[in-house]
From TrEMBL:
The gene is Supv3l1. Transmembrane segments: none annotated. InterPro entries: DEXQc_SUV3 (IPR055206), Helicase_C-like (IPR001650), P-loop_NTPase (IPR027417), RNA-DNA_Helicase (IPR050699), SUV3_C (IPR022192), Suv3_C_1 (IPR041082), Suv3_DEXQc (IPR044774), Suv3_N (IPR041453). Residues 545-589, 607-632 are annotated as: Disordered. Residues 622-632 have a biased composition (Basic residues). Residues 209-377 form the Helicase C-terminal domain. The keyword Ion transport does not apply. Belongs to the helicase family. This is ATP-dependent RNA helicase SUPV3L1, mitochondrial.
């Protein structure tokens, strides 16, 4: 190289070319200041100008389970000229809906899957009972009730309580929940210039922790409730109770609401021979149960941490108090409650957990809106929705009183339907649909619904009947029962989407009728659950471990803080294994997690490859092509 050329060339001359290349690879560099401004979540109270325009009166009803805190708030709600009740569960929203109308106070019902109006010609009633996600922050009310306010800390749903707390446009806002939320609520509302009046309540009936564990199911008494934290334990305990000639009711989270209520009525009926309840922590709220004694079959509950890892760790004080408080309720047959454990080694740990002070809640959840994601997409048009969420979370700015809620479920749905051509707003709505990602049929149904929508093909009642292969037969084993529960969830998904895309999901009334028929079939299956368990065992469809072996930590009584950690696939004993589990290829993350089957992934890949020409018309992102699940 000549000296002249060396003098004419310098490494800095490459910088413009490097910068242009970097911006192509990392488009965020071009607009990071705009993105940082869009994702600024440091002043949530300013998002609700209607609420800020009035001076609200805030009353916090604080107390343990069965203290009457919600009762007093509801009485004020019923006496108001207009009101809204915001509950954590559909069952609770239904309960207040029925109570209001029974008391002569016209009340509508609004949940994600259902709308019921009581006034003629569909006119809006003065009162509305809704799930907290569905509350309207633009409608003025005299009184608003936000139940279970401590769920403002929930990693996934906390944003809904934050939105209701800061945004409801009501003259009086009544909050019901644990005292652990008082300090945080007071701090949040201090920024709005609103003071919090705290009313504290004591438990209406006494409750005592026994000095002796149950140790054997032979020691069960009428009114006992055995609380398990896995379906396997539910099945095992129910089977052992049946062997002893006793009848039990069963309640767990994935059962339809109608089936839960039917099992609760069976257990509560003094004339019914069923005197024992076997349940998960689903009994913690939403059901009125006449329980004398709560028996913790285990104190170890599986959970997913912020890294997506499954952990086995002791239940928290808040969880233990919520469950234990179901014993000896004021409205039940038993005026005194008792709490104990199944195993002697767990009793000391239970007492320790119940005697610990509940840690104050430190932060409230927040969630990006559709508008914010759309603005991100405007600046990053070739980025997938899942990646947009990741970038938003990375750029989000929150102060110490807030946190950004876990978006893993949203991202799961976004990746599931990523290859389907949809507008961003429609894609966002599909991804917010509440689904159980552990149910392969529900996941594949979301995919199928999105595909039909993208083709502009309405999902009619006739189409849905063919899709689920209706009519369905009563379950013959546990796997059949779980399949029926999944179909019920698919009906819920259809109904949820029908209120967002009424033209494409036009037959909600017919689907609701079909869902009620299915609920009856599931109720029949749960009524005969011990027979289903027996058949499943005989056909090796269900592998029940010895009692408590998978739900108790070794040496738990010696080291309460000890826990076992693994990946999401590492500790699957909580669910009965599928016959095809051994055949699933480990190369695929979704199959590893048990969320989709190998056949479903093959079908997805095939559809993705055939739709690639269509994708060229829509900028769907810069993500790499997924690895062939069979490449390993």
């Amino acid at each position: 190289m000549t000296s002249a050329s060396v003098q004419a060339t310098h490494v800095d001359d490459l910088f413009p070319f490097f910068l242009r290349h970097a911006k192509q690879i990392f488009p965020v560099l071009e607009c990071k200041d705009d993105l940082r401004q869009i994702s600024d979540l440091r002043r949530p109270p300013n998002w609700y100008p209607e609420a800020r325009a009035i001076q609200r009166k805030i009353i916090f009803h604080s107390g343990p389970t069965n203290s009457g805190k919600t009762y007093h708030a509801i009485q004020r709600y019923l006496s108001a000229t207009s009101g809204v009740y915001c509950g954590p569960l559909k069952l609770l929203a239904h309960e207040i809906f029925e109570k209001s109308n029974a008391a002569g106070v016209p009340c509508d019902l609004v949940t994600g899957e259902e709308r019921l109006t009581v006034e003629p010609e569909g006119k809006q009633a003065t009162h509305v009972s809704c799930t907290v996600e569905m509350c309207n922050v633009a409608t003025p009310y005299e009184v608003a009730v936000i139940d279970e306010i401590q769920m403002i800390r929930d990693p996934a749903r906390g944003w809904a309580w934050t939105r209701a707390l800061l945004g409801l446009c009501a003259e009086e806002v009544h909050l019901c929940g644990e005292s652990a939320a008082i300090d945080l609520v007071t701090e949040l509302l201090y920024t709005t210039g609103e003071e919090v009046e705290v009313q504290k309540y004591e438990r209406l009936t006494p409750i005592s922790v026994l000095d002796r564990a149950l140790e054997s199911l032979d020691n069960l008494r009428p009114g006992d409730c055995i609380v398990c934290f896995s379906k396997n334990d539910i099945y095992s305990v129910s089977r052992q109770i049946e062997i002893r000639g006793l009848e039990s009711a069963v309640i767990y989270g994935s059962l339809p609401p109608g089936t839960k209520l039917a099992q609760a009525r069976k257990f509560n009926d003094p004339n019914d021979p069923c005197k024992i309840l076997v349940a998960t922590d689903a009994i913690g709220m939403g059901l009125n149960l006449s329980i004398r004694r709560i028996i913790f079959y285990s104190l170890i509950k599986p959970s997913i941490n912020e890294k997506g890892e499954k952990e086995l760790e002791p239940i928290t004080t808040s969880q233990a108090l919520q469950i234990a408080g179901r014993a000896g309720r004021f409205s039940s047959h038993f005026k005194e409650g008792e709490v104990t454990t199944m195993h002697r080694d767990d009793l000391a740990l239970l007492k320790e957990i119940l005697n610990r002070p509940v840690d104050p809640i430190q932060a409230a959840g927040l969630h990006p809106t559709a508008e914010q994601i759309e603005m991100f997409a405007y600046h990053l048009p070739e980025t997938t929705l899942s990646n947009l969420i990741d970038i938003f979370v990375d750029f989000a700015q929150v102060d110490g009183q807030y946190f950004v809620c876990n978006m893993d479920d949203f991202k799961f749905s976004a990746e599931l339907i990523q290859h389907i051509p949809l507008s961003l707003r429609v894609r966002y709505v599909f991804c917010t649909a509440p689904i159980n990602k552990k149910q392969p049929f529900v996941c594949s149904s979301l995919l199928q619904f999105a595909r039909q929508y993208s083709r502009n093909e309405p999902l009619t009642f006739a189409w849905l009947r063919r899709y689920i292969k209706w009519p369905l037969l009563p379950p013959k084993n546990i796997k059949d029962l779980m399949d029926l529960e999944a179909v019920h969830d698919v009906f819920d998904l259809y109904l949820w989407l029908s209120y967002r895309f009424i033209d494409m999901f036009p037959d909600s009334s017919f689907v609701r009728s079909l869902q009620k028929e299915l609920d009856v079939i599931i109720q029949e299956g749960v009524h005969n659950i011990t027979k289903l368990i027996k058949i499943s065992e005989s056909h090796k469809l269900l592998n029940l471990e010895p009692s408590g072996s998978q739900s108790r930590l070794p040496g738990a009584s010696k080291s309460p803080a000890r826990r076992t950690r693994g990946t999401k696939t590492g500790n699957k004993a909580a669910e009965p294994p599928s016959p095809s589990d051994k055949e699933l290829p480990l190369a695929s993350r979704l199959v590893q997690q048990g969320l989709l089957t190998a056949d479903m992934l093959k079908q997805l890949q095939k559809e993705w490859l055939t739709q690639r020409p269509e994708q060229g018309k829509e900028k769907v992102g810069t993500r790499r092509k997924k690895k062939d699940p069979n490449s390993d």
